[in-house]
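Entry type: protein chain
Record version: 2
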Amino acid sequence: MQTKQVINSNIRATVIAAFGVLSMLFAVSETAQAQASQPTVFQAAGPDAASIQSTVDAYRAALGDNNLNNPGPLQKGRREINWDGGNVNVLDTTVPVNPFLTFLNTRGSQFKTPGLGLSQAPVSGGPQGGLAVLFGNPTYATTFRTFSASRLFTPVGSNITEASFSIPGTNGNAPAAVRGFGAVFTDVDQPDGTVPGVRRGNPRASTFIEYFDRDGRPLFSSFVPAAPGDGNLSFFAIKFDDARIASVRIKTGDVAPGPNDDRHHDIVMMDDFIYGEPQLLE
């Protein structure tokens, strides 16, 4: 993969907030494989849900109405996954599965990991004990926070999550691409010091997201902004003018969950996923 170059004259920065919340919009130069136009970037980091809410809402508005579980194909709008149906009483911890197909038919997305599997779990409590029991680490009960209660999403046995898309209602039989994808993260402690789209900056930056086209060619990549402190929240998303994102790869933290989250390890969990309405790949 060729190194991405940043064309300074094309950089547009709009402050939407800071550590409670800084959000920037960048136009970044294309890679040799990418198409001509560049995505708009939405990013924010802060101590609680309120500190990133305006940026998340701006991204939702940019993608369009929430299509919920309606079957496709639909020409516009977005899909969301919050891992608990918006029900704070959903406290079950799901057994790690790989691939994770819970939302394959209803919302046109599936997830894989090179690890054991992917799970939904509350931070603490519930009949299975939440993250603390899932990973055998009692400190996790106070390390993380949700953006939308009550559960988070995480790989088990790895810190890698891979997403791909299909037309909702086809049970994965109609591969698709989306024009945007974003996610909320909790407890990204290690700062990045980078410009989105460029693989450089603090080598200890822990959380990274990559976007690929239908042929597996890179479209864009960036570190996720940090919000140091237990349970603080980060949001990162991009939006193209057309549906060209066929897959996404997310690295959460610098090591698979299990160790304590401390100055030696940055353990990161995920909350809401928001993405553009899947469009058929032809």
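Comment: The chain has one domain: 8-280.
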